[in-house]
Amino acid sequence: MGDGCWREIERELRREEPPDEAAVERVVARIRREPAAAPRAGAWAWLTRRRLVPVTPLWALGGAAAAVLAALFLAGAPWRGPAPPDPALQPVQFVLVAPEAARVSLAGDFNDWDRDATPLRRASGAGVWSVVVPLRSGRYRYVFVVDGTRWVPDVAAPRGPEDEFGPSSVVLVGGST
Amino acid sequence: MSALAGLLLSAALLLAAPLAAQDARLAERLPPAALPGVAAAVAEARAQGLPTEPLVQRALEGAARGVEPERIVAAVREQAAQLRAARDAIGAEAPEADLAAAAGALYAGVPAAELERLRDARGGRPLAEPLVTLADFIVRGVPRDVALSVVLSLVNARLPDRSFAALRRSVAEDILRGLAPAEAASYRARNALLPRRPRPRINTLPPGSGPTSVPRPMPPRRPFM
Amino acid sequence: MSLSDSELVRRAREGDVDSFAVLVRRYHPGCMRFAVRMLRERADAEEAVQDAFAGAYRALGRYQERDRFGTWLMQILVNRCRSLLRGRRRGPELVPYDPAAAPEPAAEPPASPDEAWSAEVQDALMRLRPALREAVLLHYVDGYPCEEIARLTGAGVSAVKMRVKRGREQLRTLLQERYDGRRMLEGDRA
Questions:
Q1: Counting CB atoms within 10 angstroms of each CB, which of A30, B218, C23, C147 has the fewest?
Q2: What is the CA radius of gyration of chain A?
Q3: Which band of pLDDT confidence, cut at 50, 70 and 90, is reported for residue C185?
């Protein structure tokens, strides 16, 4: 007796949904409005990937600038202070999308929180700012400083817990990210 | 002057030089009212064998952000205390990045005992990635126990460091999309821990609608109890 | 000639939206069936399913070949339905399970005994707490074994087995009387 009841219940639960062409069309229409499926092709992946390869994607900074940077890096020219080039330094790229900004810089543990020391360069007309900073391995907290006044964490990076002065982001250099 | 005295003098000068440089940064940038308190905290930390650069950077951050002197001093003292606790939890031989990350985790409210657990689970490998992940989750709103459990499972599963970075990115995106932080962290961690083996094919399609149609396996009937 | 799920996913990742549209067509009915059973309201179900497909599309870059697309999609849908349920205030559609409570009368008399039974099954289903409802649907309707459900939902395997068992028992208790009445009706008609 009990089995018969359950069989009926199961049969009812399993009853197929009739195809709803209109609903399917609505889903497809929404998908078409989405940005490109493959994150590799999209801006998000480009922005969120921490690149440790020296020349990727320096092309975005414009040919001449890229050539200068590449030459500086390869020649081992100093980035800060008179210290000789250090083979333990790894280039780390920081990117911020801020189309409305007039200027963007980095302040963090690697530049004594000096908002003027590390300006970002506009990488494209779409408001993408970027800079490549050579860093020794370690953990660094940092923020972007927009127009000299707004302290903005890096949305793509892990958050720093030490926030009594305000939010910050963390970058780990040294092989893993 | 004897050779030994000369040597000692040079050594003293060498030691003094970096100290003077550090003081110079603090002296140049800190509000004067903060200088004594910060300098004292830094000196004490050095005497205890703790890394001092994180303390200097914290002070410089406070100065750059225009924070009141008392808060700067308090923050530096608190960080020194956390570095000390971090060293006790994960060991004096830990790399500076690990100590800084551990101090961060303590700041976020992770109990020291849990840090020790993580250290043991990691078996001597660097701790920075899991600890940064742990702190990131907590700051983003994942409840502390969920964050700990997620990170510990990944550590126990011996997942490579790049998995942590990938996990952080997907959880951050999920949260930005509106998913509850606890749910995002658990869901993504589950995915990261899924074993790599082919799964039984189970059909959810109406029969005959595609090449993947296979007869649906019926669950065994249990007697009514 | 229809393409396999893996081939469609591969093409969709390279930017071929039409391939993803084929996947939508394939999985939409099954997803709607689950979502309607979980949420009851058709509009909510459609929203959950649409969100799940959109989420799957956005996350295609993270989809791994070793996952079956249907299972991966179902995991997204399960989470969407849970979010929607949590967002809802407790309304008349989420009456807690109470075998002593009289079943609610239908809002309007249904046209046929089959429709009546249909409505009663859904009513009974909505009286299960969401975790049980979910487990029953995933197991008995979509055919996932308990181990798979455990992975999908993040619960332990024994917890899932218990939910499946309890859900089934509660449904049967709630519907036994209606079923007996239905059998009698059929006997009359036969």
A1: B218
A2: 25
A3: confident
Pairs across A and B, CB distance < 8 A: 106
Q: Which helix (H) or strand (E) holds A144?
A: strand A138-146
| Structural tokens at position A72 | 């500086």
Contact C140 B204 (CB under 8 A): no
Q: What is the DSSP letter of A15?
A: P
Distances (CA, A) of A173 to A89, B128, C85: 9, 10, 42
d(CA C7, CA C160): 33
User: For residue C10, what are the CA distances in angstroms to A38, C18, C26?
Assistant: 10, 12, 16
CB B64 within 8 A of CB A115: yes
The Cα–Cα gap between B220 and A117 comes to 69
Token pair for residue A106?
Answer: 């980095």
The model's pTM? 0.49
What 3 state SS string does B33-74 have? HHHHHHHHHHHHHHHCCCCCHHHHHHHHHHHHCCCCHHHHHH
Helix, strand and coil in chain A, % to nearest 5: 30, 25, 50
Helix (H, G, I), strand (E, B) or coil at B146: helix
ipTM: 0.84
Give the tokens for residue B187: 């869901």
Put simply, the answer to whether C82 touches B183 (Cβ < 8 Å) is: yes
- Residue A170's nearest CA partner among B136, B98, C54, B83 is B136
Which regions of chain B are under pLDDT 70?
Answer: 1-22, 195-225
Tokens of B61: 């951050």
Distance (Å) of CA A50 to CA A130, A154, B72, C44, C78 = 12, 12, 31, 39, 32
Model pLDDT, residue B196: 54
Please tell me which of the candidates B204, B209, B225 has its beta carbon nearest to residue C142: B204
Of the candidates A140, A139, A171, A136, the one whose C-alpha atom is nearest the C-alpha of residue B126 is A139
Helix, strand or coil, per DSSP, at residue A173: strand
How far is the C-alpha of A41 from the C-alpha of A43, rounded, in Å? 7
- Distance in angstroms (rounded) separating the CA atoms of residues A127 and A101: 8
- Touching subunits of B (3+ CB pairs, under 8 Å) are A, C
Cis amide linkage into residue B31, ω under 30° from 0: no
Q: What pLDDT digit, counting tens, does each position of A100-158 carry? A: 889 999 999 999 999 999 999 987 777 889 999 989 889 999 999 999 989 999 988 99
- Cβ(C89)–Cβ(C52) below 8 Å: no
Structure tokens at B90: 């994960």
Give the distance from residue C172's alpha carbon to the nearest chain A alpha carbon, in angstroms: 6
Residue A139: what residue type?
R
Helix axes C5-13, C69-87, angle to 10 degrees: 70
